[in-house]
Amino acid sequence: MPEPEWRRIYGFRVVISAPSASPPPPPRPPRARLAGFAGVLFILAGLVTVGVALASQVHAPQPSASAAGTIGARGPALDPSAPVSVSIPAIGVSSDLLDLGLNPDGTMAVPSLTTSADEAAWYKYSATPGARGTSVIEGHVDTYEGPAVFFRLGALRPGEQIDVTLADGITAVFRVTGVREYRKSNFPASTIYGPTGYAALHLITCGGPFDYASGHYLSSTVVFATLASYRPARS
User: Fold this and answer.
1) Among residues 195, 182, 176, 204, which one has the least CA distance to residue 70?
2) By CB count within 10 A, which of 3, 72, 119, 209 is most buried?
3) Helix ranges, 59-176 (H)
4) Cα dihedral 111/73/60/190 (nearest 10)
């Protein structure tokens, strides 16, 4: 075997050895070559499928830092009356309201993903919207098929309007004061559900990154709003 030849490439000394005298491997039979080629195509097809699926996913808008605002402000208040529907023109939401309470394990019940993903729900153990205290309305952000009722909740900004129609015919008109995202592992329950001295409305949905291992979102998007005015019942 001849002596290796030393060269320098950009200041690094490298050695180039003479080709090995061992014979090349025998040619693979045609069937083996075809099987290998088919395997490569199968892998490429799988990668393309995954890429298309990821590219086609539509992600819900998340609250911007500039929309954090405040968690509330004092304003007028209405007599208690159960809510029947909610409308949020800025994000195209118009939904009848379910009234839900608690699950047997003490967690807040949520609308069915299979039958009520397009409906929001009032948490019936919170204040009625417009009455003094904290009223809570929740809804899903999406389903396995696509967007749900509160898909664009994170796009709301302070000053935008939320209308809640009540059973007595009055429409409570709320103004958004802030939109924030909270990690579920550090969720400020007392801030979201606790009492207030004014008519507060808090809208809640899932947000942040999706954890494929657990099948849940890691954060919650919360909209804070305060009663600004009302429209009387139609005679």
Assistant:
1) 176
2) 72
3) none
4) -50
What does the alpha-carbon distance between residue 172 and residue 228 come to, in Å, rounded to a whole number? Answer: 8
Dist. CA 230–CA 29, nearest whole Å: 82
Torsion angles phi and psi, residue 100, rounded to 5? -125, 155
All domains of the chain, ordered by start, with CATH?
A: 15-56 (no CATH), 65-231 (2.40.260.10)
Q: How many CB atoms lie within 10 A of CB 66?
A: 9
Strand 133-138 versus strand 120-123 pairing type? antiparallel
Amino acid in position 43: I
pLDDT digits (tens, 9 = 90+) for 130-184: 999 999 999 999 998 899 999 999 999 999 999 999 999 999 999 999 999 999 9
Closest CA to 153 of 202, 111, 215: 202
Paired residues of 182 in beta bridges = 220
Radius of gyration of the CA atoms of the chain, in A: 29
Which residue type, as a one-letter code, is found at position 111?
P
70: which 2 tokens?
């405040």
